[in-house]
Description:
Layout lengths: L14 H6 L5 H13 L7 H10 L4 H17 L1 H4 L7 H7 L2 E5 L9 E7 L11 H16 L6 E7 L5 H4 L4 H14 L3 E10 L4 H7 L5 H5 L1 E5 L5 H4 L18 H14 L1 H19 L1
Parallel strand pairs: 2-3, 3-4, 4-5
Antiparallel strand pairs: 1-2
Helix pairs in contact: 2-3, 4-9, 6-7
Protein name: CRAL-TRIO domain-containing protein
GO molecular function, one term: phosphatidylinositol bisphosphate binding
InterPro entries: CRAL-TRIO_dom, CRAL-TRIO_dom_sf
Amino acid sequence: MRRSEAVVVPFGFSYRQYVENGMVREEDVADIRSWCDEFSLPVLSEEQAVLFLFSCDNDTEFTKRTIETAFEIKNSSPLIFDNRRMSGEDIQGVLSICNVCMVPQKTSDGSTILILQAKLKEGDEVKWHIRGLLKLTCMLLEAAMFANPKCEFIIVFDVQHVTMKHITRIKPKVMKIFIQYLQEGLSGKLKAIHIVNMMSILNKLLKVLKPFIKKEVWNMTHFHSRGKNLSSFYKYVPTEYLPEDFGGCHPPLSVLNDVTVHTLTSMEGYFESEEIFRHSMDDREEQ
């Protein structure tokens, strides 16, 4: 893939509207871009700078640390963050055993709900790898931010049909990379994680992962046991924001999955540009 510092990563919003509304300062955007050049990072566009500033509550020093971490994690983990194509074997393997969706309606406080649901499909458990699942999850996160830089996320994992065959393909070392990215490198805000239809077979995995999870993230992670109604889940996410699979008002996950896959496919130009832009850092370091 050709690399170029001049590549423009497209977004579905203009930073100017947020400057004019007083939600971000022009001088902070300029400071972030100037700092990138000074520290041999690819110079972010104004839109990219706004994304990171919003995720860090407009704290410029915190924003700079987050940007550094994002570049470091993404460029050192190509199996998760590069070659992000929906037609790829890794993504297709995940889609064979998992529904994914962005719920079209935002919550009352403007949060976007992302759902990943394991399918009951015998024999396909061995067709996927954890890196593909994490790649697709990160693509979902970026798709949600594409036109909404103030985005906050509620991530829902429905693990009802997870089996031991699925779990044996989960590598803690790879999960650690994803957890660090969520906590320290994401250009958006994580509001909550919900694990619904929780099963005891996942407890050992959680025990391994918990040391990597910061207290504030662990405190926003909620578990809803299998075999019970989802009343505990509805206390956090009312049914009006959920697909009908969860007793909600929106179309079933199978339908929303198709819509989401179409959205991600239409964004392949964005994912390719973002990768080229990111790796222009490698060219700068070689000079």
